[in-house]
Amino acid sequence: MYRVxxxxxxxxxxxxxxxxxxxxxxxxxxxxxxxVLIAFDGAQPEVIERLIRIGKLPRNGGFARLIRxxxxxxxxxxxxxxxxxxxxxxxxxxxxxxxxxxxxNTFHDTETPLTATISGFSAPIDAETLWEAAKKQGxxxxxxxxxxxxxxxxxxxxxxxxxxxxRVGFSTVKLMDGTHFDAASANLWNLGGVACxxxxxxLGTATANQVFFQNPFNSAERIFVNVLACDTIFDGKERYxxxxxxxxxxxxxxxxxxxxxxxxxPFELPLLAPPDPAFPDLAKGKIGSWVKLLKFxxxxxxxxxxxxxxxxxxAFRRLSWTISTTLLASGRRSRTFST
Length: 339
Hints:
Elements: E1 5-11, H1 21-31, E2 34-40, H2 45-53, H3 62-69, H4 84-93, H5 97-100, E3 106-107, E4 118-119, H6 130-136, E5 140-144, E6 160-162, E7 172-177, E8 181-182, H7 183-186, E9 198-202, E10 211-214, E11 222-231, E12 242-246, E13 257-259, E14 264-269, E15 286-295, E16 303-308, E17 312-318, E18 324-325
């Protein structure tokens, strides 16, 4: 019997990253068959193909390889109406809206006053989802920001879930002036086993050059992140290729992330959600953000920029690749379908 893992991912915007067939095949050989379902919300095929043709998307990138090496349908009939909640719940269940009871992104619940509405993203799903069926068969399921899998109850999460729509802040691009990095600040760092031919660090929390996150539960508090630029190539030329992000400037006891330009990394912040009687598991969780190092000038002559995605709140144990479980337990109530 094969052990199957299923991963559901919903991207609300178009993202691309390279992937390796060799790595995927090696994982499948070691762990059994794995199935990945990815939904790109609002990404029309003809738009993707045109962006590839004109070079706006890489011709050897993820989308191009899926089109070239995968199975491509010339046309499909979607569930009506063609909105996010309705179609993604149908994808997750294999059922039409008359069975899922999700007829729109927002609709009227007949058990409520006439002027009241309910969100199709949070309304109870009356058909069995793929993650429910897979868990019943003993399969491991991971859901990442997939509509319907928001963690609000056992039927709305996998074994591990990063909940859809569960965030405590907004994404932002942060800029650091490369000329405000110096060697004296870098000498305050404990590098542990890291070797740098040249090193510079940002000047500290007193300057606008500092990377920080706002505490979503206390707007007056900031979580500062220190940045070290390291030249790891010992060739006598001062060209910085690696950025370390850390809270205490001590790499010997670990660090938040080691990044190169274009890399993504999870930033786990030293915050705990405040106690909430309605959601007790959240107080055990962590808050974090996925961050991309957008620009990193090897000479530190220009601005360094990072993109911090919306901070999310998570509970329970982390996976080895830092996807966390988000649990927002809530009761399920009966409801009558309404168009």
